[in-house]
Model the fold of this input.
Amino acid sequence: MFAYIIRRVLYAVPILIGVNVLTFALFFVVNSPDDMARMHLGTKHVKQEAIDKWKQARGYDKPLFYNPGARGLEKFTDTIFFDKSARLFAFDFGKADDGRSISYDIRQRMLPSLAIAIPVFVVGILVNITFALLLAFFRATYLDVWGVILCVILMSISSLFYIIGGQYLISKLMHLVPISGYDSGLSSVKFLILPVLIGIVSGIGSGTRWYRTIFLEEIGKDYVRTARAKGLSELAVLFRHVLRNALIPILTGAVVVIPLLFMGSLLTESFFGIPGLGSYTIDAIQNQDFAIVRAMVFLGSVLYILGLLLTDISYTIADPRIRLS
Done:
């Protein structure tokens, strides 16, 4: 197991390097630092003096990959690539274009994102599996047919509809919770109820259909027919055998997204005014803060690879037949 983990981690290194280089190319090769300065300054006729001053203040006045005017290793370290991209591997995110520490912002905004993501993730899985088991139990009946139709309808509705509709119905008409905003401590609960509820409801359609497909596939296998032949009830077959043997595909979809919970939800946090990492990324894009966007892209890549690694490890826990060398 240990050798397998080390091997997977080593496999992840070239992937992260590729993502890092590609991101750097998109920001600094396709758009030069001069183009970035013009976009940030936001005026049509920008003097070169203002551009040079903006670049110097943010360290964009250096060569991209190689500095012929430096000595020794500084030929490679005194460059934009080393300052802005290579240091990301040490999780040194540097400063935003307005001078704020990106690492500090991430630490501050991580908790609001988790306050939404964790309840949506946990409750959503329980609700989806429960509904999927119910449809599988009443398979080929009117309840199953109409349940699938309802799931398709829920899947077809845009997440923006759930957000705007929920704000209008629950906040504006019924006045049950605030329409947007955030507060610290226990006072934040009233601001989180509606985003969490919308996150759960918007995922019921796709989640229930997916789990239902997994359960129906397991129900058709030989070991289920053997269990029925031994006299086990349908409920016992579903919970003792089908649910247990369906854990691997369930873990595939669940464990892989656990690290991504830290990244927050872009739409939900923006519409509800939650100061999480999702709204942090959206604000950086709108403000053309390239340093924050680069840091969030790299962090997202690291978390996704970590999720894949956790998924592979969880296979051995769910199914002892799998052995990792």
